[in-house]
Amino acid sequence: MTSDPRAIIDSAVQDSKVNDIIRRFGFSRVRGKSFSYRPNLPPAFTIGNSLSGGVIYVSDWVISKFDDMELEWVVLHELAHIEKNHIPMRAVYDLLSMGGTDYLAYAYNIPFLGASTLVKSLRSLVTVFTGGITANHEKEADRWASEIQGTKKHGITALLKLSRGQLDMISHVSEGFEFSVAALTMRQRIQALAK
Length: 195
Description:
There is one protein chain. This protein is α+β, with helices and mostly antiparallel strands. The chain has 2 domains: 1-66, no CATH class; 84-195, no CATH class. It is 61% helix and 17% strand. The chain has 8 helices and 6 strands; from the N terminus they run αβαβββαααααββα. The strands form 2 sheets. Strands 1-2-4-3 form a 4-stranded mixed beta sheet, sandwiched between helices. β5 and β6 (180-185) form a beta hairpin. It is globular and about 40 Å long.
């Protein structure tokens, strides 16, 4: 199986367990699908927003290895990204990074070499900035899922399983044009949730 995200999305199938959790919490415009997990893929991810709904993708590894409450927490975490409009907000920052910096250099008629340096510098700043936003979104989704469940226990055990014993592994990154920024580690997420 390929690790191309588009192919993963195209090959994902409706999942009754994930859909049952989604329906139980009243998210009628959101669907749940499962996909075959690969180590270079996130174990779960979301596409969508609070207006149109979306799709939550959960890997077969999470569905088979997590207990019911841990799976519920993972799905709630992904629902938080839809409910809080994290995905569209991130797209806006990515567009600003891609087009905004180019437009700025063009609008102020900066010579080519200077424009190139300006664009790279601004894109780097946006990448660092969005790394902080990504970290905040993940922590917010972690807290929201735990608040809905009324306990932090399942979130902490789910995050421990997701880390596979490597607490300092990178949980999320902010992708830039020149480099990537580590947004936060699994340890940081667990510590933030445990507070």
